[in-house]
Design goal:
Blueprint: H1 23-35, H2 42-54, H3 56-63, H4 66-70
Length: about 120
């Protein structure tokens, strides 16, 4: 495909598994960020504080900003982002945690990468 035929838009998928060693530190950081935002209406602030206090995963979701991932990348502009977090039972030795395992589609080979013959990566 020529450059003119390809889309200017790219979907970048990132999946992270984090180990939380100090839930209170994560919650505290989220609460400090909430308090530092003077533009947040009081009702929304109270709801957000409650959510991050009750659930460390919510606190992490509040602290992570996809714009931070690409803000220093030249030539790109964030068009849309969504993210979520949830507590999980993690076993790094389990085949369930093969991060590439769920990326296989019709054009992909068994290893989840695009077949070089179709113009994808090899």
């Amino acid at each position: 495909m020529s450059t003119e035929e390809t889309s200017r838009y790219v979907r970048l998928r990132v999946e992270l598994v984090l180990e939380v060693g100090d839930a209170d530190a994560v919650t505290g950081a989220a609460l400090r960020r909430i308090a530092a935002d003077p533009g947040t209406p009081e009702a929304e602030r109270a709801h957000t504080e409650s959510a991050v206090t009750e659930d460390t995963a919510e606190a992490l979701a509040y602290l992570v900003d996809p714009l931070d991932l690409i803000s220093e990348v030249p030539g790109v502009e964030l068009q849309q982002a969504s993210w979520s977090s949830e507590p999980v039972d993690y076993d790094p030795d389990s085949p369930e945690w093969d991060l590439d395992g769920d990326d296989v589609d019709e054009d992909d080979g068994a290893d989840g990468r695009k077949d070089a013959r179709t113009g994808g990566i090899g």
